[in-house]
Amino acid sequence: MLGNETDILLWMIPLLAATGIAAGILAGLLGIGGGIVIVPALYYIFSYIGIDPDVKMHLAVGTSLATIVPTSIRSVRAHQERGGFDLELFKAWAPAIVVGVILGTWLASKADVGELTAIFGTVGLSASLYMAFGNPEWRLARHLPRGLASIPLPAFIGTISSMMGIGGGTISVPALTLFGTPIHRAVGTSAGFGVVIAVPGFIGFIIAGWNAPNLPPYSAGYVSLIGFALIVPLTTLAVPWGAKLAHALSQKALRNAFAIFLGLTSVKMLANSLGV
Which letter does DSSP use for residue 115 in this model? Predict the structure, then answer.
């Protein structure tokens, strides 16, 4: 455990910068959201530099949600220009997602580090299995549920995503495609869901952690301001590097490699949650 504030800052800055670059490259390579990379990276960084175990997962989730806001806004604009953003679906799902985020943020503030880590590990492992073995032709139905039946799915996405610190694409893209939504429209619209999840989510984590003890230097509640300041610009800078690499490498091999990485990370986090 690092002893003083200066030591913590000296380690935080380069490690958080590396996290931003890695998240950006993987986002460009695989088209994934940064949160699924940033949360486990922050969790282990905070563990390494000696952040209080009682707050490190909350801090990782809150900081990740804050970084998602600008990147999701940029992504939405890009997808709108290409006609990949479904405004009607966004309007229909956004209210239920917001309700889910409020619920998820409240549940996260009451959960201990083991419970939050277990949730991330479980959903992360499920996502890795889907990336490795999922078939894009799988369908649960030809159309999304309508009316009252349409509320539970976006509410669930908002709840779980806010508790995990992700923008929702990891859950909403597979969910939308399973109900017959074309993949490009699913990805573009999910970027919009990322904004709806991240804005109330990170505000809620600031409020929930405002008086939390033993937070690292320059934190606003459960949001690391240093993490936000370093990760966002470096992720944005690194995305084109990943996109360039994507054209030179096998996408299937890359997805399988990331699925293995995410699966192993998720299993480790599940083991940590169980005290193994």
Answer: H
Q: Shortest CA distance to 235 belongs to which of 75, 74, 42, 17?
A: 17
Asked if residues 27 and 33 have their Cβ atoms less than 8 Å apart, the reply is yes
Most confident of the ranges 191-195, 202-206, 244-248, 257-261: 202-206
Round to whole Å and give the CA distance between 43 and 145: 36
Give which of 187, 155, 170 is closest to 258, Cα–Cα: 170
| Complete DSSP assignment for 52-72 | -TTTHHHHHHHHHHHHHHHHH
pTM: predicted TM-score of the whole model, two decimal places: 0.88
Please report, rounded to a whole number, the percentage of residues in the chain having pLDDT higher than 90: 38
Question: What is the per-residue pLDDT for 221?
Answer: 95
Phi and psi dihedrals of 238, rounded to 5?
-85, -20
